Amino acid sequence: MMLINGTSTIDTVWCQTIPILAHHYYRFTGWTCPFNTIAPPIFLVRFNEQLSDTIFTDTTLCLWQQIDPTIWYSGDSVFAHICLTNASGIIGEGNDYAIDDLSLIELCQAHDSVSIAVIADVAPVPVITGDTLLCDGDMAVYTASFAPGANILSYTWTPSSAGAIISGQGTDQLKVFWNGVGNAHVCLDVETNCQTNSACLDAHIGIIPFPEQVTGPPFLCPGEFGTYTVPFDAAVDEYNWSITSGINIISGQGTNTLQVQWSNTPSADLCLELVNECGTSTSCITITQFSGYTTILDTVLCGSNTIVVNNHTYGNGIWSGTELIPSSTGCDSVVEIQITPVNAFEMMTTKKLCPGDSLYLQGAFQTQAGSYIDTFLQYTIVIVSSSQSLFLPLLTPHGLYPRLVILLLRGLRSQLSMRAIVIV
């Protein structure tokens, strides 16, 4: 006896290969006992990979009952590879049962005379109807129809690899469980007394769109334009964008790329629904209004020198301040001015010269001993306002944006007074 913990899909539970005689008839049978009244076993018997009868069992719980005998002709085969498959799997049920005493018995041959009449027999082409737009995990029913007067003796259904037959093999209606993604098909071979014919129905299996990450600037300034996108997916039927009220959608609704224009809103959620026949997935990004950027201008000034920033003069007692430099996007830059005043300083040094040496002081080479006073000039680059200008890139949270700051390169004199005592 074999106890079987069944599954919810088609399940081959037993196979065996045995030697047989060619061109003989055999009977296959056995015993089974269902443990679930809702899902008793439905057996499919295969001989050498060829499907034989579909065997239905009684729903009486725990009742041993004989499996309906299946008659099989061996043809040229001298071995029989026999497999027993349960096709009654129901999702959520136990599908459990037992089998015992499986047997293959040779039938005694009998001879008889037969009268043969030749008839005009045509196998019509099956017309298959059923669901062709499918989703992973769907059940679908397919029905074959024929021209009037067709005498169909057998129906053999063959779904593609993603389809599992639940019921209906050998009849004109088939129930299939689809598990996979991509192109699929269901084919039917029919047989009449003298002819065979076949047809197929193509289908496609899809899945719910994968939620893609929305990419684009997380910060925008009032009036600024922003572009947001997700990768294009041919399996998506609809791109539905939504954003907080007050933010203008400029273009791209219904596509994978959207352009918006920011208003004076602290923050907003931009969401995208990806829709197809199998369902909907949603992705969102939060956008925050960028309030501006602050930088510090720290420099030194000598004596009475001054600088001009944004048309305001600094120096001569005005050593700090704050300047607002507007931007066309609304993200103004704030510049904090900090100036350190410095004064000229004096120093005294003594230099000894050897006969014939000299020292350049007061505009001449000095060779005589004495006391000399001289002044040195030092030039420094400082920031002031003029027609000459430079662009200083200020880093904002969403990239480099040029902010115009007016600069002038001007010589700033720093006096260095030196008193030198020359000793010869």
Describe the structure concisely for a colleague.
The protein is mostly beta strands and 424 residues long. It is 0% helix and 55% strand.
Description:
The protein has 4 domains: 2-106, Jelly Rolls (Sandwich), CATH 2.60.120.260; 127-206, Immunoglobulin-like (Sandwich); 219-289, Immunoglobulin-like (Sandwich); 293-417, no CATH class. Mean pLDDT is 81; it is low at 377-420. β27 and β28 form a beta hairpin. By secondary structure, the protein is mainly beta. The chain has strands spanning 2-4, 11-19, 25-34, 42-47, 50-56, 65-73, 79-86, 97-106, 127-130, 133-135, 139-145, 154-159, 163-167, 173-178, 182-191, 196-206, 219-220, 225-229, 238-243, 248-251, 257-261, 267-276, 279-289, 293-302, 307-309, 312-314, 320-325, 333-342, 345-352, 359-361, 364-366, 370-376, 389-396, 399-406, 416-423. It has a 4-stranded antiparallel beta sheet with strand order 1-8-3-6, with no helix packed on it. It has a 4-stranded antiparallel beta sheet with strand order 2-7-4-5, with no helix packed on it. A 4-stranded antiparallel beta sheet has the order 9-11-14-13, with no helix packed on it.
